[in-house]
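In the design runs reported in the main text, the only information available to the sequence generator was the tokenized backbone. The following block is the verbatim input for one such run; it is reproduced so that readers can re-run the procedure and compare outputs position by position.
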């Protein structure tokens, strides 16, 4: 399923880029992130406890930043698993100067397999959009407070 969004951040595009490349900021903004450990260049092992509708539960997985075109855009890929279910998503994040800040445009795909997939795509799509909004809302707050 496709997910999209645009977010305005009152911080310079450079500060937004630096923040989104920071593992500390990522861990702070990923909904339910309990632990995030670097496993390679731009790759992290994560443990999450998610409390969003059909995808609620504890997951282990990985997050990867790739296809980097500094300081304009990058791709963020996330995978999570728990018994009987796996969740994955990838999003292209583009940073564009706008006024005194930056606009973040996100275009991505999310997929679910296993028990949760039987719940129905409508509920899963709502959960994916909610989690994306939580991530970028937390990122916006963290970036603007440090600007």
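Verbatim output:
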């Amino acid at each position: 399923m496709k997910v999209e969004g645009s977010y305005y951040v009152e911080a310079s595009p450079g500060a937004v880029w630096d923040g989104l490349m920071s593992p500390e900021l990522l861990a702070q903004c990923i909904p339910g992130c309990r632990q995030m450990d670097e496993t390679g260049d731009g790759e992290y092992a994560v443990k999450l406890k998610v409390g969003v509708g059909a995808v609620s539960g504890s997951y282990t997985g990985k997050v990867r930043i790739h296809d980097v075109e500094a300081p304009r855009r990058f791709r963020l890929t996330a995978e999570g698993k728990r018994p009987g279910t796996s969740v994955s998503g990838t999003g292209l994040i583009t940073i564009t100067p706008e006024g005194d800040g930056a606009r973040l445009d996100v275009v991505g795909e999310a997929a679910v397999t296993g028990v949760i997939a039987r719940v129905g795509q409508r509920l899963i799509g709502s959960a994916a959009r909610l989690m994306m909004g939580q991530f970028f809302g937390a990122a916006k707050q963290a970036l603007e407070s440090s600007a």
